[in-house]
Amino acid sequence: MKFDKIIHEPARLRIMMILTGIEQADFNFLLTTLSLTRGNLSRHIEKLETAGYLKVIKSFNGRLPNTSYQIIKTGSNALTKYWENLDKLRKSGQAK
């Protein structure tokens, strides 16, 4: 059984879990919710985007730029597979 190393990192797993529960989240929401530094959050988002798990949405709120993120089908499928593998591992360690 192989775990997705991109998702397995705790901060990235938390990002994926947040995005699974909502339509999209902006950078500041994730920053506040996760208590990460700007640079650290940016790096984790970059890894998830490069893996094809997130979509980056650039827009403006008035004159201010806003960046939001949305989990896409590939990311949702990868997260589901991650949980399935974790569940298999957990069940394999139970006494029968």
Please, what is the CATH homologous superfamily?
Answer: Winged helix-like DNA-binding domain superfamily/Winged helix DNA-binding domain
Proportion in β-strands: 15-25%
Total beta-strand segments: 3
CATH class: Mainly Alpha
How would you sum up the major sheet? 3 strands, antiparallel
Task: Please report the number of helical segments.
Answer: 5
Q: pLDDT average, as an integer?
A: 93
| Helix and strand pattern | HHEHHEEH
Radius of gyration: 15 Å
Shape: elongated
Structure at a glance:
The protein has five helices and three strands, in the order H-H-E-H-H-E-E-H. It has helices at about 5-10, 10-20, 25-35, 40-50, 75-90, and strands at about 25, 55-60, 65-70.
Explain what the structure shows.
The longest helix is centred in the last third of the chain and has 20 residues, at 73-92. This protein is 59% helix and 19% strand. A three-stranded antiparallel sheet has the order 1-3-2. The chain is built from five helices and three strands. The two termini are 20 Å apart. With 96 residues, the protein is α+β, with helices and mostly antiparallel strands.
Descriptors:
96 residues; Arc Repressor Mutant, subunit A; 3-stranded antiparallel beta sheet
Summarize the helices and strands and which ones pair or pack.
Blueprint: H1 5-8, H2 10-21, E1 25-26, H3 27-34, H4 38-50, E2 54-61, E3 64-71, H5 73-92
Antiparallel strand pairs: 1-3, 2-3
